[in-house]
Amino acid sequence: MIIKQFKLIYFRIPIIIKLLITIVILMCFFGTVIHFIEPMQFPTIFEGIWWAFVTAATVGFGDYVPLTTSGRLIGILLILTGGGLIGFYVSSIATGTIKREQDIEHGRLAFKGTGHLILVGWNERTRQLIKVVFDNNPNEKIVLIDRTLRHISFNEFPIHYINGDATEDTILERANIRYAERVLLTADLVKNERQADTYTILATVAIRGNNETIPIIAEILSKTQIENALRAGATTIIRSNDFMSALFYHELTHSAAVTPFEDILQILSKQQFSHITLPVELENKRFVEVSHHLLIGDHLLLGIIRDRKYCIHPSANLLLLNGDILVTLVRL
């Protein structure tokens, strides 16, 4: 029974550790044998073991050498066995290191950290978002899940990449979804709107099933799918099509501005949007009064969220009620 348990434990040990254990046992064996064969040349077992390691590693310090024929035969056996084992051990370490780097680059390695941000979908918007995040918080831990990207260079993008489908539990577990801080799902613009939204909703269901409390920000292209995304568990819906349509209309109906809109977005990237629950002392006060109050604390009030609906730039006389969420812009 004891031998069976030992075998089970031994077979679970990584091969690198097995090799190291084998090498140590073998060196101790040869070191002990050479001590008893030539006690004058190797006064202690430790000196014999030292000779065994130096000989097997082909270092050849020459401070201890066997003088008798028996001792030299032991040395030959040591070179033939121990030398090969140590060479195999070193090459295994090198191979393991290279394989780990390849696994990281190709998205096969699980993420072990906590408090991280998970991005689902690789596109130009994700690329820009990663840049903005690291510009504002270089220590942010980001995990990217994508099923189309073949590999990603860590030197170019210091993120942890996982290749796979975000609707699968095994992929989400590799991203350590249970200990993530929040998730952002971007729409796949290569697909048509319905297919892209369907995937986003399915991924939302899978994420919510693995983490009941994590905030999920989902980009939805079609207005008709917003309710489905909310039912699936999304906490925030981004309607990029509506924003782009409003931007196009603005450009079509207004004269050219001096500052390109891209520069305005770059300026906004240096600010931070914030959601604040309406304080009790500001309840039943007008929007303009609350806005003035927040300006003192460096918060620019843009609008409110009421009954899960955004109301941006409402009437100055709108009364704010208990449960309203203030949408503000804060300077970083």
TrEMBL record:
InterPro entries: K_chnl_dom, NAD(P)-bd_dom_sf, RCK_N, Trk_Ktr_HKT_K-transport. Keywords: Ion channel, Ion transport, Membrane, Transmembrane, Transmembrane helix, Transport. It is a multi-pass membrane protein. It is found in: Cell membrane. One of its GO terms (cellular component) is plasma membrane. It comes from the Bacteria. GO terms for biological process: monoatomic ion transmembrane transport; potassium ion transport. The chain crosses the membrane at residues 15-37, 49-66, 73-90. SUPFAM superfamilies: NAD(P)-binding Rossmann-fold domains (SSF51735), Voltage-gated potassium channels (SSF81324). It comes from Oceanobacillus chungangensis. Pfam families: Ion_trans_2, TrkA_N. This is Potassium channel protein. Residues 114-239 form the RCK N-terminal domain.
